[in-house]
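Hey,
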Amino acid sequence: MLAVADEVVEQLWTDQVHQHSGVDLILAAGDLPFDYLEFLADALDKPLVFVPGNHDVDLSGYSNVRGLWTKAGLPVRWPGPAGAVNADERVVDVAGLRIAGLGGSIRYNKGPNQWTERQQARRARRVSRLAGWRRLRDGRGVDVLLTHSPPLDCGDEPDAPHRGFACLHGLVSRLRPGLLVHGHIHPHGVPRPDRVLDGVRVVNVVPYKVLDISGARDET
């Protein structure tokens, strides 16, 4: 899979993206221009699953019924990336993988997609319930937990906007995903090593990484 977050890679916004044509799925962990994401999906002709970051527009409250987008019962234009699957606070099955999503960052001002620890914990419990119902129905667990922010003290930063969520520790423990993919923390030229949380590999994908869900391959 091709995982992207936070920083546009100019080479990927050209025909050079076709060097990654072998991927089966594009994951976006937030804070990227939606037309960039649309280009990646169109150029590679692969499904795109994303969660919003704290610099993305508010995508809450939108519903899609048979291709018609509505908000508060009124027809509207979907402001998110065309054709993409918003996994925020959801569990979705795409390209043979089960993906649980939780977007946004810790609240540090009045912008969209920001949550207090208590609010995010409530959203995390909903994701856990949805994953549990899916597992009861078909016996399958979550393959990837896709978040914008990292877990607290697991690849985050000490400044207020980049502090991780403590509730992700419990969510990882309950879901036992094969992989946790996040963004939000910019490398700024310093390599960000993978972390391990309760036996689960935690990967910062800013600006992009090509990942194999089995963990057998990891290349930038």
